[in-house]
Amino acid sequence: MSRLSRCIGALKRTLLAPSREPRTLSIAVSSEAPAAVSSVAPAAVSSVAPGVAPRVASRLVSGLVLSAMLVSAKVAAHDVAGSLDAIGSDTMAELMLRWGEQFEEQRPGVRLQLQVAGSASAPPALIAGTTLLGPMSRPMQEDESAAFIERHGYAPTPVVVGKDALVVVVNRHNPLSRLSRAELDAIFSDTLACGASESIERWQQLGLEHPGGTIHLYGRNAVSGTHGLFRRRALCDGEFKVSVMVSAGSAAVVAAVGDDPAGIGYAGLNHLNADVKAVAIGNAEDGILPRRQSLRSGGYPLSRDLLIYVNRPPEGELPDVERAFLDMVLSPSGQRVVKELGFVALPPSVLAAQRHALGLAELPRDGP
Fold it and tell me: Exposed (0-12), middle (13-18) or buried (19+): which is 367, by Cβ within 10 Å?
């Protein structure tokens, strides 16, 4: 018996079986054949209720069977199916999951397999060939890129998919509003690579009476792209103090600072909440907050690109699944997800450049 025949039989059994509640049907199809039928409540097929006439149900079955056959034929001709694997950034986890949900709605035969162990996990997976897509919240380091080139004979392709920022946060009751780059470095590091003359350990050194006492430091763990980028940008490639209390995610850092009046930390922009406030970075005259405009222009000193690194031979094409996924990510609907999750969508010019680099069709001029 073919898979289509089994699917038809399942449709009939589902619709004609007794039920106390109305049901809808979820039909998953791939490019090969209809894959599954499940019954869920509540009701788009609300007419299939207890006591429905078998003749009515049979007509409904016939219509659904015809629809399933037509959908299957359409998918086989034009759609893609398979597993979409991605390994990398935890900062981008929710973004990747939302994109995955959207993609699965558009391409029912595709399933996203996502591993989020931090940006540092993406290069080894790309090098080993475990995945073709590596989401990262920081650029690849030289040694990571070199190892990829040594293995594959060409460089990985970085695709910018959104804008983000590392935000320095303090408790909402803290009166601190601005830090210079040197002060920020002196707070979080002992190496003072940004030019400060002494380490800053206490709030009084910043001219604050409240909060008093020792500054409590919160940050990300070493496998995080957020950790690595903050070390390079805010510490001028220096080293963190051993007193920094590390967490696996930005949400945990924000929660800790929100509960600690003497706390200061750094986190991704989209994790901020009412318990903390952002600190401007820069001198007294030009302290900059992480706003949409300063992120798009690059004026905010701790802004960053959100990236998906792609294993794509220079003269080759991506497999259909990965190509279709990136086409969606770099589309108006994909960029709407970026904005909905608190990141900053790409300007039209950047979006067009990323699509061109991947050989994707141009978007209409009214873009996202």
Answer: middle
